[in-house]
Amino acid sequence: MENVEVINGYLQSRGSLVQCALTESKGRILVASRDFESGDVIYTEPPLHIIEEDENSELFRQLEQFALVHDLCYSARWCWCALNSLTAGDLEQLPLRCSLISEGLQRQLLWLCAPDENDSAALPAIQQLLLDLGMTTDLTDKFWRLLQVWKYNSFEYSDDPVASAIYLQASFHSHDCNPNSNWVADEQLVLRARRPIAAGEEVTISYLSDEELFEATMERRMRLRISKDFHCLCQRCSEHWDRSRGVRCRCGSLRFLAAEGSDLSPCDAGCAWPAVEVTKREELLVQLCRQQADADRATRLATAQSFAPAAHQLLPRHWATECLHKWLAEGCATKKEAKECEEKRLEFLQDAYEGAMRNTHTAWVMQSLAMWTLSSCGVLREDPPPSPAPSTEREGYEASDPTGRICETSLRKPLC
Ligand SMILES: [Zn+2]
Ligand SMILES: [Zn+2]
């Protein structure tokens, strides 16, 4: 792992307003060199390197086949990226049909985080792959590191053709479930402050989409474990009561399930109520939302019509109930109903965590609510378009997301 001085030398040469620091708990992080106001651009950064998949390439198909047969936990995509990050010196005379990079570029890629470096379980398969490709196993360690560099640090660059990009500077940010900055990637990655950041404070981003940030702690941790292989210990994940799992007590008051397990926060009226009754039904609701997430709109609407009233009754401040209300709002028969659904969504969202009102997902719901309000007053002739379906693939925000437009307008001016 490259030392902090080298990385800071690189950041200084770019005139960056963030600096790299080493911490015991998180390793390398980026901290602000000066104060930033909410909405300030912290930096813009072009991709260091972009790799496109080539499904027509024989080599790519060979990698897919290999990953399948050997049950390799690293998909063909990451093997392809590693292969295309080798230099002419690495391959010597080998006529592999992949693109080569310069030694300087490879050195910079190797600065990045490769958390499984000491986990040798996949190494025999990697060695076999190199042999199958006619390469020498001397390259095993480097190939293994490059593969992890792409898996853990790359950003989705385009869907068609599928391409991954590495932004060097942005790769040093750690994740937080209430991040203080927000990135948008198009040609360049643009990082903006979500809230005021003081000089010396760590600048964090979210590795989850803005919609996923509203999910329960268990869900967020599971996603981060699968995609980035770490256990999130951010302040929000460390809170005992999970504000994305709000339950209506028998007496009507609002209670919360614990972030881990099934403890229920105490009721003001002192009701004794076994949490297991709630968690069983919660589990069914979560399963339902997961199963129907990719269904067509009519199926999702039918599901939401059947289950949303009961879900709202028992789990009024729950991320899965919010999901049902979203599906309902997409197909509501009347403007009044749509407006009510968006109001219920917003009730949950604005309460779920401290930074929720600066979240793009919230911004979309506020926009939709405002449009339905105007529409039901007769100010707007046409019904508003549905909120865009967020991509499950991208780690941040689509370039078309309204972060810039809405956060800087609607979110600063309360909607009437
Ligand atoms: Zn977290
Ligand atoms: Zn009660």
UniProtKB/TrEMBL annotation:
Residues spanning the signal sequence: none
Database matches in InterPro entries: H3K4_H4K5_MeTrfase, SET_dom, SET_dom_sf
PROSITE patterns noted in UniProt: SET
SMART domains on file: SET
Domain of life where this protein originates: Eukaryota
Residue intervals of the SET domain: 16-208
Region (Disordered) residue spans: 381-416
Pfam family, one: SET
Name of the protein described by the UniProt record: SET domain-containing protein
